[in-house]
Write a structure and sequence with these properties.
alpha+beta; homodimer
């Protein structure tokens, strides 16, 4: 990490007793920095605030987080700011402390090194072996319990594979390891629900608002029948999908149109 | 925490980039210390080693961990030593680094403050509202993704309720938030499987070996029909259950016999 603020102060130190470490008791946001600012800040904050409410994590204030994240955004100019909020230290075992004092960790990073071809020629995907467990109490949140994604990303090291799709235990295709998925079928955009597993991505929410895409479950047959596939997140914007395992997809008009619109809005992570 | 070793050295500092914090990418063991030693060390180590293998977490050596945990056990004399192993820092996003350098955190604590009546008169339980998601790839391990348990423990603060039972999404009763469950029905011990969710507790494994208890799924009807219920973990040993919600249970002979056997083996956490 290039520079890290812990509770607003430059630091390289988190207490070993922090519940973020002990239990994954917290949330995070990975935010694209452009021209020294965070274009999607308000959406990131809203999702984080929703997660805090669901976890019963109090005492997290937007003004403080906005200042700290933007302080580092100004430094990094172009790259990533990652924000981690934990329930801090304390409590007895799993039981949260009555008055938690959350820990704020804000870190600035360079942009991840994705080749330009990921945007221009599209990405090749694999299907993960590991399945996503379902739990409505945790679904949608960008919480710190991410072992499923770690194990999924551990399944391959072929650099020709940019990302992998994850299915739930019933075989429904939910998302990538770090991206949300949209398909185009019959000219209409569809994205899977994230109310049982998966993360409610900030870019997914934006694309849903822009396009009125349908939210419904997708299985492998739906994927095979799709005319276009795209992946998205707040850092990359959109990657067109050119292949999933052996099936190839064209980079279609709807995907290209959305990429252009993101570009014009200054929200594409394209390099 | 009273005293903490990080990678063998007294420390109050974990790197903010540690994957244990960022993703819950690690494992832990909570071990009872008695007379300055850890009676169940070998079992804890074996479970940890199995978890490391399943997570692809290499470079964790028993001799090092045994020395560090026992160094603190000698200091605390009677209490708890908690060991956390993470995949350390590094890697790109969820992707683990090619050569991980695990972080070892060993912390000594006083014994938790449970009243003696928990062992003598038994404990009253509630049923959790939150359900356990199922994922065979993670089940059984004592990994750092524990938000389900945190939210479960957040459901009540009545000190008269010692623990709560957790069901999976199909309504099967799996475990307590920090304990495993055994029932006695028709004079026979039964404990639920932990191959889809739940933790394969060290004390559960010991009781299984001692008793040849059956492992099969339990639903609420099975619970209602049980003659005795007990909870166990490596720190408390066994708590007899005297009530689950409004249903009462006697403290029966089989439970009392196992508690006596634990006492004689020096493995009861009774105060």
């Amino acid at each position: 990490m290039d520079e890290v603020l812990v509770n607003g102060v430059r630091s390289t130190c988190i207490a070993p007793s922090d519940r973020g470490l002990q239990y994954g008791d917290g949330l995070f946001e990975t935010m694209r920095v452009h021209d020294g600012t965070i274009p999607l800040w308000t959406r990131h904050w809203r999702r984080l605030a929703d997660g805090c409410r669901r976890l019963g994590l109090e005492g997290v204030e937007e003004a403080v987080l906005r200042e700290e994240t933007h302080r580092l955004a100004a430094v990094v100019a172009r790259g990533i700011v990652k924000l981690v909020i934990t329930r801090g230290s304390g409590g007895r075992g799993y039981r949260p402390p009555l008055e938690a004092r959350p820990t704020r960790i804000v870190a600035a990073h360079a942009s991840p090194h994705h080749p330009a071809s990921h945007w221009r020629q599209g990405v090749a995907l694999r299907l993960c072996r590991i399945r996503l467990g379902r739990n409505p109490a945790l679904a949608g949140m960008k919480h710190l319990n991410r072992l499923e994604q770690v194990l999924a990303r551990h399944e391959w090291d072929d650099p020709a594979i940019a990302e992998a799709l994850m299915q739930d235990d019933r075989g429904r295709v939910v998302c990538g390891t770090m991206t949300n998925l949209f398909t185009v079928t019959g000219g209409r955009l569809v994205t899977p629900p994230v109310d049982e597993c998966g993360v409610a991505g900030v870019m997914r929410a934006l694309l849903l608002e822009w396009t009125g895409a349908q939210v419904h479950a997708l299985n492998l047959e739906d994927l095979a029948a799709a005319e276009e596939l795209l992946l998205c997140n707040a850092v990359i914007g959109i990657w067109p999908v050119r292949a999933v395992e052996r099936q190839e997809y064209p980079i279609g008009k709807i995907t290209l149109g959305l990429m252009e619109r993101l570009r014009q809005a200054g929200l594409s992570g394209e390099v």
